[in-house]
Amino acid sequence: MKRIPLLYTAQGWVVLGMFALIVLIILPTLNLVVSADHPLYVSGYIINLFGKIMCYMMVALAMDLIWGYTGILSLGHGVFFALGGYAMGMYLMRMIGREGQYQSLLPDFMVFLDWKEYPWYWSFTEHFFYALSLVVLVPGVLAFVFGYFAFRSRIKGVYFSIITQALTFAFMLLFFRNNTGFGGNNGFTDFKWILGFRITDPQTKAALFMITGLTLILALLICRYIVKSKLGRVLTAIRDAESRVMFSGYDPLPYKLFVWTFSAVLCGIAGALYVPQVGIINPSEMSPANSIEIAIWTAVGGRGTLVGALVGAALVNLAKSWFTVAMPEYWLYVLGSLFIAVTLFMPQGVVGLLKKRERLKPAELSPTERSNTVSPKVKLANESVT
Amino acid sequence: MKTFRSWLWLLFIAPMSAWALDAELLKGLASDENDVKIATIGKLSDAGDVAAIPALQALFDGALFLTSQGKLVIVAGDAAVDAVNATAIDPVPSDLVSIDINNRVRRELNAALAALKLSAPERAVRLASAKQLQADADAGSLLGIERVLATEQDAEVKEILVLAKAQINLKNADPKVRFGAVKELAATSNPNVKTLLAAMFVKKPDGSFVEPDSAVRLAAIDLLNDIQGRLARLELASHAFNGLSLGSVLLLAALGLAITFGLMGIINMAHGELLMIGAYATFVVQTIFRQHFPASFDWYLAAAVPVAFLATAMVGMALERGVIRLLYGRPLETLLCTWGISLILIQVVRATFGAQNVEVSNPSWMSGGVNFSSGLTLPYNRIVIICFAVVVVALVWFLLNKTRLGLFVRAVTQNRTMADCVGVPTGKIDMWTFGLGSGIAGLGGVALSQIGNVGPELGQSYIVDSFMVVVLGGVGQLAGTVIAAIGLGEVNKFLEPYAGAVMAKILVLVFIILFIQKRPQGLFALKGRSAEALA
Question: What residue in A sits closest to B331 (Cα-Cα)?
C-alpha cells in the first residue's frame, strides 16, 4: 500500500483529483442543484453523455492493458462489455415487474414468445448482488476459458485477433436469436427501477454518473498499479519479445491470462454501468465493428499510457456524438480516416504527440515508445526466432 | 408443335373419327332406363374411342338433347351439333327433349370421361384426367387405365396411372391382386405411395389391420422401408448439394483473401468491401446493359466478370501502393488501417448508390433448375456458381504455379530478401499479388450479387466467414482454402436441419475456434522454410 502514492507524480495526483472533483461533485451539483435556466446548469443530456463516455473510457483502459501493454489486440472486447450489460439488464428487466406492456411478471419479449416462466439462467437475477456477481463472473469466466485455451496453444498476433472477432460474431448471432432468451433483436429496454429508485429520475441518473466516475478512477488506479508492478513489467516484456521472456524462465501463460481476464472483467463492469444510463442493451453492441472501434479509441489517445486510452475514448466519442447529430453521413469518413491516420502517422497517439512536444529525455519514454523505436524489420527478426 | 397437333386433331381426326361412332350404341344414352345408360357408357368407355367424349361430356353437362326424330344433338349456346358425326345442325331444332341423369349415372360418366380423356393427345388433358382417376380410384376405370398404360409414353402420366391402378387393386378382395399392387407400387417414386401404404397399417376399431393379409402387409413394409431409405438418400443428396453450393460461395468470398492474407500475410479487413465493389460493378454493368443493350441483357454477366475483376484489382493495387505498403511488418496496424479503409469504402458506396440494397437480377438462363424425377431440384444459379468457383480456382492455381508472375509471388512469399537479391522486383510483385487477390474478391462479388442482396453492408457479412475459411484451411495453401470452404459449407448445411440456420452458423464458428486452439496452423500447414517465413 505504500506504493500507491508512487503511482503518479504530485502533478498527476492533482490532475486526477481535479477530475474527481469535477465528476463527483461539480457536474452532479450543477445538474441537480442549479435551476434549469441558470447559465451554469448542466443538462441531463450532458450528464448522460458523459456517463456513457466514462463507460467507454473504462473499456479503453481495459483495451490498453491488453493491447497497449501486453501486445494482444482483442477484437472481442465488445462481447465482454455487452455480457456485463446483459447481466445488469437481466436485473433491470426483473425490476420492471408488472409495469410492462402485457402486465406480466415476465419481460414483454418472453410473453411475446409465449414463454410461461423464466429460463433457468434467469434464476436469482432479481437479486441485485447476484446480478452484480454475474457482471463480473460471466465475462471473467468466458475470458478465462477462452484465454486459457488460446494462450496455451500460443495463438498470437493477428490469429488471436481474428478468433476473438469470430467469438464476438458468434455471440452476436446467438443473442440475435429470439430463443436464446435475451430479447433477440431488441435486447432489453424500457427499464423502470433500480434498487427501488426510478431510473428516469435526475437524482438516480446523477448517482449513476457519480458511481461511474468513481469506478473509472478506481479502475485507472488499479490499472496503473498493475502496470507499475513487476507483473506489468513482465507484460511489457511479453509484448516486446515473448520468446526472450520465455528464455528468461518466465511462463507467459499466467501473466497473459491474468491481464486478459482482468481486462474482460473491467469491460463487463463498464457494460453494467452503461446499461442503466443508456437504458438499452441489444446484440449490436457485440458486432465486430464495435469491438474494433474500441481499439481505435486506445490508439488515438496513445497506446501503453493508460491516460492516453482515456483521452482517446473521450475524444473519439465526443466527436462521434457531435458528428452523428450534425452530419451523420460524414462520421464514417472521419472514423475511417482516424483509423488510417493514427496507424500511419501517429502511432503514439495524442499523448505521444504531447510528450514529444515536451521533449522528454529518452529514459523517461514509456515502454511502448522505446519499443517503437526498434525498426519493424528488427522486430520481425525477433519474432521469427520462435 | 403441341398446338399444331391439337389443331390437326380438331380439323381432321376428330370429325373423321366421329364417323366411327355407332349411332345405335349412342342412342342408349337417351334410354329412359338408367341401367341402359350405364351399360352404354361402359361400352363406350371400354371401346376407348375419343370421339365419344363430346357426347358424354354433353350428357354430363346437361347439353345433350333428343330430337323428335330420335337424333342426339349437342347444344352449346345457340349452336347445335349432331352427336354422332359432329356435323353442325342449323338452325337449332326446336323440338328438343332433355335427357335426365341421376348421381349413379353421373359417377359412371365421370369415370368414363376420365378414362377416355387418358387417350387424348394433349399431355395436360391426360395428366389432369390421370390425377382425377387417381383421386377417385374407382374400380370401374380399371380397364381403361390398363389399356392406356400399355401405350402411354409420358413418364409423369404413367406414374400417376400406375399409382391409380395400384390404389384400385389394393381394394380388391383377392389378396394376390393386392400383393401384386404393392409390388407394382415399388416401381414409382411418387411421394403419395407412402401415405397409401401407411393407410394399410391403420388399425380398425376391432384391432385388425385395414389390410387383412399378412403377406401383403409384409410386402408393404418392405416397400415402405425402401421408400424411407430413398427419401433419406434424397435428403442427403440435397443437403450435400446445398453444402457444396454454400461452400463454393464461401470459397469465392475467401479465395482472394487466401492470396492477400494467406500468401502475403496482409490482414486486409477491407476484403469484404472488395467483394462489395465487385457486386456493385456487376450492378453497374447490368444497368448499362439494360439501358443500352437490352437485346443482349442475358449476357451482361460475361461483361461484368472482367469489369468487376479490373475494378477491384485497381482499388486493391491503389490500396497496396498507397497505404498497406507503409505498414509491412506491423500486422495489427495493418488490420486497423484496412478496417478504416473499409469504413470509408462503405460510406463512399452508400453516398454513390444509396443506403438501400440495389437490385441485381439473374439473367434468364440462370433461373429455373434441373429437375430430377425423384423430386430433387438443383437451381441453375447455384450450379453456375459452383462451376464458376471451379474455374476461378483453376485459374488462380494456374497463375500461381505455371506462370512467371506466380513463380515470383511464391519466391517473394518464401524468402523476400533472397528474392530481392536475385532480382525479383519485390515491391512490384507485392502490388500485382495484392491486385490479383483483390480482383479475385471482385469475382467473388459477381457471384455473391447473383444469390443475395447487394448493399453497402454486403462485405461486412462475409468478412468473418472469409477469415475463418482461410485460417481453417491454413495460410499459404490454396488446397487448404478450397477444402475448408467446401467442408464448412457442408457441415453448415448438414447441421441446419437439426439446429436451425443461425445455431448451425454459431456451432460452426465455435468449432473453428476450438479447432484453431488445437491446430493453430490450420488444416494444411506449410512445412519447411516457407513456414518459418510466415510464422
Answer: A158
Give how far B482 is from chain A: nearest CA, Å.
Answer: 19
Task: With a cut of 50, list the residues of chain B below it in pLDDT.
Answer: 1-2, 4, 8-19, 528-535
Residues of A in contact with B339 (CB under 8 A): 292, 339
For residue A368, CA distances in Å to A68, A69, A251, B336 come to: 8, 8, 22, 18
Nearest-angstrom CA–CA distance, B533 and A383: 10
Q: Which three cell numbers stand for residue B347?
A: 460510406
Cα A228-A231-A235 angle, rounded to 5 deg: 95
Instruction: Look over chain A and give the mean of its residue pLDDT values, rounded to a whole number.
Output: 87
Q: Side chain identity at B310, as an amino acid letter? A: L
Closest CA to B157 of B130, B136, B177, B181: B130
Task: Please report the pLDDT score of residue A98 as a whole number.
Answer: 85
Rounded CA-CA distance B116/B17 in Å is 14
With 0-12 / 13-18 / 19 or more C-beta atoms within 10 angstroms meaning exposed / middle / buried, residue A378 is exposed
B162: nearest Cα among B172, B177, B171, B150: B150
- The per-residue pLDDT for range A255-288, each reduced to its tens digit, is 999 999 999 999 999 999 999 999 999 999 999 9
**Between the CA atoms of B307, B313, B319 and B324, what dihedral angle is there, to the nearest 10 degrees?**
160
Indicate the DSSP class of residue A121. G
Dihedral Cα B81, B82, B88, B90, nearest 10 deg? -90
C-alpha cell at B59: 350428357
Alpha carbons B506 and A167: distance in angstroms, whole number: 9
Size of interface A-B (CB pairs under 8 A): 130
* Chain A interface, best mutation among B335, B353, B511, B515, by max A CB count within 10 A: B335
**Looking only at Cα atoms, what is the longest distance across chain A?**
67
- Cell numbers for B418: 533472397
In degrees, rounded to 5, the angle at the alpha carbon of residue B235 between the alpha carbons of residues B230 and B236 is 95
Q: Tell me the nearest-neighbour CA distance from A76 into chain B, angstroms.
A: 12
HEC profile of A74-136: CCCHHHHHHHHHHHHHHHHHHHHHHHCCCCCCCCHHHHHCCCCCCCHHHCCCCCHHHHHHHHH
Distance between CA atoms of A102 and A100, rounded to whole angstroms?
6
pLDDT number for residue A359: 61
In order, the DSSP letters of B254-300 are HHHHIIIIIIT----TTHHHHHHHHHHHHHHHHHHHHHH-GGGGGGH
Q: Kindly report, residue by residue over A353-368, the tens digit of the pLDDT.
A: 888 877 655 544 454 5
Place of cell 515491391: B427
